[in-house]
Amino acid sequence: MAAQAASIHPASVESHCWRPLFAAPVPAGFPSPADDYIERSLDLNEHLIQHPAATFFVRASGDSMLGNIHSGDLLVVDRAKEAANGSIVIAVIDGELTVKRLCKRGNSVSLESDNSSYAPLAVNEESDVAIWGVVTNVIHPV
């Protein structure tokens, strides 16, 4: 099943989401002695939302973006950010929202899945396609 946007919710930065930030990075290789103190608190809105009025949360469904996005992931989408080559975008195709990677090669543009089971969709002047926003962050459970 192609990755689709299942639901859309506007971002709200009126409330803060302060969480502790540990001073020392946590290695992903061999463990090191842990620093046992908190450097400061941080607000997740500072790290996830650049343009509050133009940011929305979208729940993904489907498997066409496997590798980066899984069904059920929460996507942070910035409608003020310009889509660049390689950006993961929310596109409107024939009135339906979908999650795809924007690919520009020379004069051709396509929307592609990260899952090779899905064929690219060529975008041209006749296409009923619009870029709705750029995915800036993916939040998924581990």
- Give the strand order of the largest sheet, numbering strands 1, 2, ... along the chain: 1-4-5-10-6-7-8-9
Could you give a short account of the major beta sheet?
Answer: 8 strands, antiparallel
Shape: globular
Helix content: under 10%
Q: Round the Cα radius of gyration to an integer and report it.
A: 18 Å
Topology, number of strands: 10
List the total number of helices. 1
Q: What is the mean pLDDT?
A: 82
- Give the SSE order as H and E letters: EEEHEEEEEEE
Helix/strand-derived category reads: mainly beta
Query: First CA to last CA: what distance?
Result: 22 Å
Indicate the low-confidence ranges by residue numbers.
none
Strand content: over 45%
Question: What would you note in describing this structure?
Answer:
The chain is mainly beta and 142 residues long. It is built from one helix and ten strands. The chain has one helix at 44-48; strands at residues 4-10, 18-22, 38-43, 55-61, 74-78, 88-93, 96-105, 108-112, 121-123, 129-139. The strands form two sheets. The protein has an eight-stranded antiparallel β-sheet, with no helix packed on it. It has a two-stranded antiparallel sheet with strand order 2-3. The longest helix has 5 residues, at 44-48.
Q: What layout of secondary structure does this protein have?
A:
Blueprint: E1 4-10, E2 18-22, E3 38-43, H1 44-48, E4 55-61, E5 74-78, E6 88-93, E7 96-105, E8 108-112, E9 121-123, E10 129-139
Give a summary of the structure in a few sentences:
It is built from one helix and ten strands, in the order E-E-E-H-E-E-E-E-E-E-E. It is mainly beta and 142 residues long.
